[in-house]
Q: What sequence folds into this?
């Protein structure tokens, strides 16, 4: 098939950036990575990109096509070429460019290491001469997180990191969850404390780009929500983000609806809220600050209250509550009949 | 008329009452009969999902159960965040029968109706971007927008994660553009239209949120937009109300008017100010309305 693509080239020596177009013949089954190989072999040997396994395992060939992060080895070119589309290939976002499609992964690895991505001692020893058997229900909590191949596609698109480069970000936090949810790890509370830092879980802006882009179905945003749920369940809720989340729970079980006007002082505390007073008055003039009294109470709110007590009794707090129906949500699913009997 | 259960959510009941009044006024013109629900609560806005996930699931199941009890196939939402939260819970409950049974039993234990998984959650945007709703919209928008340049701002949780939302390509959405054009406006294109407005962290991490918020407003302004339209009241609140904070932090005074989707169509359909309630906006709508007068 005839393939045309444009590549954003970057020459670090001259500092030049240029969009170059390439046209060539490629086999029907060619991926974007195969096409880059063809360009490099036949047209321009100076093209720089990373690659290794060619089979979605090594995580080396993360890059952007038409602005969206992909693994080059996963992206088939036939439908694109047949549609007559000329895609634009560029380096991943949120990471400095070294040359052409190669980015400097140092900030990525620094954050990865910051979450201590390894089992920490202190866990219960298995019974003598026995393996440490983890129940399936516990494994389900970190199944998706353990699929991560560190490719950086999620980080490339993270909206919060674009605004604050120090945000720990989706990959590191998903990796953190992989150990928080591992029953063999002995540092769960210390980890949660660390991930509740200024640039930790509560800086996630819930744009869901990470879930959308991840080529392995890790769903990093869901992992961050699991860390939030685990933190709240452990009583680690001093961050404004946790207070904000808890206020929604309080609102739902008291009035049924969000108690909007009280949200700011409950999240930020009285002192910070007072500093917001001028801003709040501006909003109040437009009816954007509904009076808290009389409260806006839902009909039959006692049902919502009783549900809260019932849910508490059933004890599915923390990450366990999030993975319910995970089989339905997971991109990597068992067949329709469910997992095979063992 | 299509009978739909109407879930207005927290903001349209409180700080964004203009979204509720314009939606109620517009609905019959686009073939929707809004059915009020006997009893519903907050969807949790992603916050209860993060703090008490099992409670989130039960609250959303209860909303779906009350819609089902009204014999409605569709639960109509007017907020991105409500849409994702309800669709996510609904997906879980529909696909996992054991889970639905447990939750449904719990609903009945507290006196709520059971949930059998028969409801679809759909945003107003999807109802009027295609099919009968779109045809009726074209006929209803008789006053038109007189070539007004409108920047569509989708926000996040009506596009992503697409496996739960799935109405349109999250990277190349078309629904808002189609509606703007059907109303006689000109849709402006700009990269940040599918990005985050920063609202979920605007209280806990204001600086990071403002760094996100400025992008759509600045890009829309540079592209010559007269106003931005959004299908989400949370995006509306940050784009409209927090614009003054951008002025304080960057010195840039954008004065970019922000419209709810129902207001944009409502203007084109000739709704009255008492229904559109533009006076409730922080950034003045006057320049836009003056352009429409000419």
A:
């Amino acid at each position: 098939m005839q393939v045309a693509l444009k590549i954003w080239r970057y020459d670090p020596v001259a500092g030049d950036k240029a969009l170059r177009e390439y046209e060539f013949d490629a086999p029907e089954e060619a991926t974007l990575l195969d096409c880059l190989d063809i360009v490099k072999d036949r047209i321009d040997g100076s093209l720089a990109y990373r690659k290794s396994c060619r089979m979605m395992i090594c995580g080396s060939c993360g890059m952007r096509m038409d602005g969206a992060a992909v693994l080059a080895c996963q992206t088939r070119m036939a439908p694109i070429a047949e549609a007559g589309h000329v895609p634009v290939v560029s380096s991943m976002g949120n990471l400095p460019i070294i040359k052409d499609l190669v980015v400097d992964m140092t900030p990525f690895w620094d954050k990865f290491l910051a979450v201590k991505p390894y089992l920490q001692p202190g866990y219960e020893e298995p019974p003598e001469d026995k393996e440490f058997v983890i129940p399936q229900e516990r494994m389900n909590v970190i199944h998706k997180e353990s699929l991560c191949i560190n490719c950086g596609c999620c980080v490339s698109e993270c909206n919060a990191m674009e605004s604050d480069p120090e945000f720990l970000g989706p990959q590191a936090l998903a990796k953190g969850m992989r150990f928080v949810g591992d029953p063999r790890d002995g540092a769960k509370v210390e980890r949660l404390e660390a991930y509740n830092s200024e640039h930790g879980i509560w800086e996630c802006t819930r744009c869901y780009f990470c879930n959308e882009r991840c080529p392995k179905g890790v769903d990093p945003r869901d992992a961050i929500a699991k860390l939030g749920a685990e933190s709240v369940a452990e009583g680690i809720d001093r961050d404004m983000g946790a207070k904000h989340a808890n206020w929604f729970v309080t609102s739902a079980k008291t009035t049924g609806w969000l108690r909007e006007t009280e949200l700011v002082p409950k999240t930020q505390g009285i002192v910070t809220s007072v500093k917001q007073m001028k801003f709040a008055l501006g909003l109040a003039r437009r009816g954007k600050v509904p009076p808290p009294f009389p409260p806006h109470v839902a009909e039959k709110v006692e049902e919502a209250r009783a549900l809260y007590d019932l849910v508490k009794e059933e004890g599915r707090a923390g990450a366990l509550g999030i993975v319910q129906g995970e089989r339905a949500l997971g991109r990597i699913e068992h067949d329709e009949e469910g997992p095979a009997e063992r | 008329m299509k009978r739909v259960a109407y879930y207005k959510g927290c903001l349209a009941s409180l700080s964004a009452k203009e979204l509720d009044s314009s939606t109620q006024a517009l609905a019959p013109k686009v073939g929707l009969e809004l059915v009020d629900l006997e009893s519903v609560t907050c969807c949790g806005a992603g916050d209860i999902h993060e703090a008490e996930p099992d409670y989130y699931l039960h609250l959303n199941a209860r909303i779906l159960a009350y819609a089902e009890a009204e014999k409605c196939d569709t639960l109509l939402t007017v907020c991105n965040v409500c849409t994702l939260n309800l669709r996510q819970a609904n997906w879980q409950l529909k696909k996992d029968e054991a889970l639905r049974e447990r939750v449904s039993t719990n609903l009945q234990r507290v006196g709520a109706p059971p949930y059998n998984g028969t409801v679809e959650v759909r945003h107003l945007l999807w109802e009027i971007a295609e099919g009968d709703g779109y045809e009726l919209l074209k006929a209803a928008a008789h006053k038109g927008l007189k070539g007004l340049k409108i920047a569509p701002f989708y926000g996040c949780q009506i596009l992503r994660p697409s496996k739960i939302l799935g109405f349109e390509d999250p990277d190349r959405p078309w629904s808002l553009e189609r509606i703007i054009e059907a109303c006689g406006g000109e849709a402006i294109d700009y990269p940040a239209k599918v990005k985050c407005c920063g609202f979920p962290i605007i209280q806990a991490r204001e600086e990071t949120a403002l760094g996100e918020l400025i992008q759509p407003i600045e890009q829309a302004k540079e592209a010559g937009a007269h106003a931005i339209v959004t299908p989400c009241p949370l995006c509306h609140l940050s784009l409209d109300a927090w614009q003054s904070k951008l002025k304080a932090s960057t010195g840039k005074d954008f004065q970019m008017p922000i419209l709810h989707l129902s207001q944009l169509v409502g203007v084109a359909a000739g709704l009255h100010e008492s229904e559109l309630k533009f006076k409730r906006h922080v950034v003045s709508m006057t320049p836009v309305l003056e352009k429409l007068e000419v």
Notes: Chain B touches chain A through 74 residues (CB under 8 Å).
